[in-house]
């Protein structure tokens, strides 16, 4: 191969690699024993996204990666954050919310770095929400929906 040729990364293979990095980040946020990201880890994740976005069609997976970026937040919030908020009440729930919001901002910061190539080219050309905004709005929307459905259930139980 010349320096300009590179192996095509298919969506499943590339996404499986990205999921390992996302899982590592989730484990770190959940306080599980996991080494921090090295600069090599970061570069491999960034390069995977770059390669998957710069392949010739039909192997340019920019839109799919943008969608999977959002889905990664939605899955984490639904499976980890919302259950941890549901099991707490009053001041304890507020403390948990503050902790989860802080962790979420860390997750947004790291994932938006891994997926940064999308922000630089794909998102600006398509006038889509920036990666940071996608990550923050996922938390806001899912937590708000959870709170409002809880209020509605509470109201219905009283009537």
TrEMBL record:
It comes from the Eukaryota. One of its GO terms (biological process) is ubiquitin-dependent protein catabolic process. Residues 15-146 form the Cullin N-terminal domain. It holds the Pfam family Cullin. InterPro entries: Cullin, Cullin_N, Cullin_repeat-like_dom_sf. One of its GO terms (molecular function) is ubiquitin protein ligase binding. Belongs to the cullin family. This is Cullin N-terminal domain-containing protein. It comes from Triticum turgidum subsp. durum.
